[in-house]
């Protein structure tokens, strides 16, 4: 998946200088970042990439969702295990990743869903996730019927996966020039969904973009990408608005 010469492209991009508007809380066995707007019963779980729940970029996304009327929670889905650091040895990335399976997060998801319902009064729930979190979104949307909408942003696709049994509407965002996710895999996903999926879905490829563009590129220093960064974020919010 990654090595020293070809690292995971999550390591490519901008680290936002951003402090966040929310607060950190304890949710059963994990910590989480929460940002709550007033008077809403809608909530979105925000799932981080390999750099973990404290990455300013991901908290920026959570705060953006909160500004659009959602209780946004970004839990530590690594459950206390160290996130990946850009300075880590990329030749050891595969071994690191094996201990953090994006499809084995039900315990954490259960805790977060309980917290949102009981502590935040959430009645309408959605989920978004980036890279590693995009894989997690795909898994959760096939597992939890109470999640009424999902947005998976550049989550890795495996040919062998059972990827069509979505329980509720799911939107898949991909980048045209993603070295990590070949377009033929995106085509395969579309074919399987078209053949087997029983709910609404959309697969969209953003021209000229690279892995992580929605949350790992700053508009002010990537002017040529700004329209696509903004379009991806708007599409994400519109999908949630439509179904949550």
SSE map:
Layout: E1 23-27, E2 30-35, E3 42-47, H1 56-67, E4 71-75, H2 93-98, H3 106-119, E5 124-130, H4 132-141, E6 147-153, E7 170-175, H5 183-196, E8 201-206, H6 213-216, H7 226-243
Parallel strand pairs: 3-4, 3-5, 5-6, 6-7, 7-8
Antiparallel strand pairs: 1-2, 2-4
Family: Belongs to the dienelactone hydrolase family.
GO cellular component, one term: cytosol
Pfam family, one: DLH
Description:
The N and C termini lie far apart (34 Å). The chain is globular, with a radius of gyration of 17 Å. The protein is built from 7 helices and 8 strands, in the order βββαβααβαββαβαα. It has one domain (29-243): Rossmann fold. Helices cover 32% and strands 20% of the residues. It is α/β, with parallel strands linked by helices and 244 residues long. InterPro entries: AB_hydrolase_fold (IPR029058), CMBL (IPR042946), Dienelactn_hydro (IPR002925). Pfam families: DLH.
Order of helices and strands: EEEHEHHEHEEHEHH
Structural category = alpha/beta
CATH class category: Alpha Beta
Beta strands, count: 8
The dominant shape is globular
Amount of helix: 25-40%
Q: Going by CATH, what is the homologous superfamily?
A: Alpha/Beta hydrolase fold, catalytic domain
Query: What strand line-up does the widest sheet have?
Result: 1-2-4-3-5-6-7-8
The chain-level mean pLDDT equals 91
Strand fraction band?
Answer: 15-25%
Euclidean distance between termini CA atoms: 34 Å
pLDDT < 50 stretches? 1-7
Keywords: Cytoplasm, Hydrolase
InterPro entries: AB_hydrolase_fold, CMBL, Dienelactn_hydro
GO molecular function: hydrolase activity
Protein name: Carboxymethylenebutenolidase homolog
């Amino acid at each position: 998946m990654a090595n020293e010469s070809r690292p995971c492209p999550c390591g490519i991009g901008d680290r936002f200088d951003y402090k966040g508007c929310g607060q950190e809380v304890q949710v059963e066995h994990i910590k989480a970042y929460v940002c709550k707007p007033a008077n809403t019963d809608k909530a979105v779980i925000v799932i981080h990439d390999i750099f973990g729940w404290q990455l300013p970029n991901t908290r920026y996304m959570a705060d953006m969702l909160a500004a659009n009327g959602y209780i946004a929670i970004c839990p530590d889905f690594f459950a206390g295990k160290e996130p990946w650091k850009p300075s880590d040895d990329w030749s050891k990335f595969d071994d690191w990743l094996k201990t953090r399976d994006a499809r084995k997060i039900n315990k954490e998801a259960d805790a977060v869903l309980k917290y949102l319902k009981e502590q935040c009064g959430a009645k309408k729930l959605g989920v978004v996730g980036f890279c590693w979190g995009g894989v997690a979104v795909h898994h959760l949307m096939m597992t939890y019927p109470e999640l009424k909408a999902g947005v998976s942003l550049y989550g890795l696709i495996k040919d062998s996966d059972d990827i069509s049994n979505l329980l509720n509407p799911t939107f898949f965002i991909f980048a045209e020039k993603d070295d990590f996710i070949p377009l033929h895999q995106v085509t395969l996903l579309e074919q399987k969904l078209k053949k087997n999926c029983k709910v609404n879905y959309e697969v969209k490829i953003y021209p000229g973009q690279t892995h992580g563009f929605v949350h790992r590129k700053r508009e002010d220093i990537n002017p040529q990408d700004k329209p696509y960064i903004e379009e991806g974020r708007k599409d994400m919010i519109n999908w949630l608005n439509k179904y949550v």
